[in-house]
Amino acid sequence: MSRGKHLSLEEARKLGKLDQFAKEHEAEGDEKKFDALLKDIARDNPQKPGK
User: Fold this and answer.
1) What residues contact 2, with CB distance under 8 A and at least 6 apart?
2) Mean of per-residue pLDDT scores for the chain
3) Where are the alpha helices (DSSP H) in 1-51?
4) d(CA 3, CA 18)
5) In this predicted model, what pLDDT tens digit does every residue of 34-47 receive, in sequence order?
6) Contact status, residue 12 vs residue 20, Cβ threshold 8 Å
7) In 10 A of CB 16, how many CB atoms?
């Protein structure tokens, strides 16, 4: 178990507490841009950026 007050990702996964982990480790970002980038990276036939 972690020694601090926050769960580690591994602990949260094992204990089924990923929602608690997400609340404790908030991040700022653009979810739509991230999802689009991830889909582009995962494609079999990627295009050049902006196309």
Assistant:
1) 8, 11
2) 84
3) 9-15, 18-24, 31-42
4) 18
5) 999 999 888 876 56
6) yes
7) 8
